Sequence to fold (115 residues):
Amino acid sequence: MSLPFYMDQHVPAAITRGLRSRGIDVLTAYEDGAAQWDDESLLERATQLARVLFTQDDDFLVLAHQWLRSGRDFAGVIYAHQQAVTIGQAIRDLEFISVALNANEMQNRIEFLPI
Fold:
């Protein structure tokens, strides 16, 4: 079983479509009615839903590190800088992570793309 992802509003729709075409469970902030929420609320929501948050917004890195330091749990964050990874590479790397790691391994973890 693969990890389910939660895409913040900065993630291109092509990444979501590519993952779904590979059978990966993806929910976007737009679909969840959360596209206008602040970063902390999005990370809380992804954690409530037991979904790893994928983002290209570097503010999430600051937030995730703050949560780590304070001992606050989250389901995991995967970050890719918009100019450091292509859409195809993001899809391939996220697919790999989704099958290589389980929810317990991603708990309170920050991963970076490209792998």
Summary: The radius of gyration is 13 Å. Strands lie at 5-7, 26-28, 52-55, 77-80, 110-113. Helices lie at 13-21, 39-48, 59-70, 87-100, 103-106.
